User: What shape does this take?
Amino acid sequence: MKNPNFIKLEIARNLKEMAEEQPLENITVSSLCKRCDINRGTFYYHFIDIYDLIIWIFETEVIQPLETYLLQHNFGSWNGITSYCLNQMYKSRKFYCQAVRIEGQNNLRDYMQKRNRDCWELLIRKYINANLSTGLYSEEYLNFLIKYTSQAVCNMTIAWAMDGMTIPVDIMAKMDDVATKGIYGVVDSLANK
Assistant: This one.
């Protein structure tokens, strides 16, 4: 039996190739299985549906490297990892530009919002824990900072993909400099009160 990750990666690679040739919304599990030379049972063993596969691709290519970076590094600008993540999306731009447009249950945009929030929460809590005494901020205020920042960055990324990724990656990656410097400024002002 083949390695399950190999099979998932092959299914993902084929879906992205098919998205280069036809609209993503027109790709069915049957047509994908035919292209991969696998049966439907193999597909459903690994994924619930095409949308689950799209989310798995994003999680694997973008979120996992970002979370690994955040867990292994202290705070600061994460411009380098943001460039990496945006470049991952840019390499498969036809796929991602179509995937963010899909509406309905389990859509990529909603997943991006949730996972982007998770990453910003990790970064902001690490920075606050290192720089503030407990009690200088409320949990409500902290949640506001996380939500505001994560939505701003994620909405910029989604808009970038919906517009065809015409803004260069190095320019897009600067949004994290703006966001992190803004968060650090807010936290530092709380520390100096």
